[in-house]
Amino acid sequence: MAKQHDKQFKLDAIQYYEDHKELGLRGCANNLGIGYSTLTKWRKELRDSGDIVVRGSGNYESDEQKEIARLRRELRDTKDALDVLKKAISILGK
């Protein structure tokens, strides 16, 4: 069961939950094939530190590289939020 997940998978799993909250944490974790407690832990790590711990990887060459990675995540999240708003506007505009 010691299945290692990369950082992108963890971020995608959290985003999946954010996009499908109606399923709840357990439903999303089940759909993704991971444990409920695993998804809960990943969400907490991201919320508390703004980053997710990845065993054996995720080492950045410098603080600058770490900041670039954080900014890329932030940009991706902002783009996702913008897409949701665009869809909502198109639905409400009808």
Automatic annotation (TrEMBL):
Keywords, comma-separated and alphabetical: Coiled coil
GO molecular function ontology, one term from the record: transposase activity
Coiled-coil annotated residue ranges, if any: 61-88
Domain of life of the native organism: Bacteria
GO terms for biological process, alphabetical: DNA transposition
Keyword Glycoprotein part of the UniProt annotation: no
Annotated transmembrane regions: none
Protein known as: Transposase
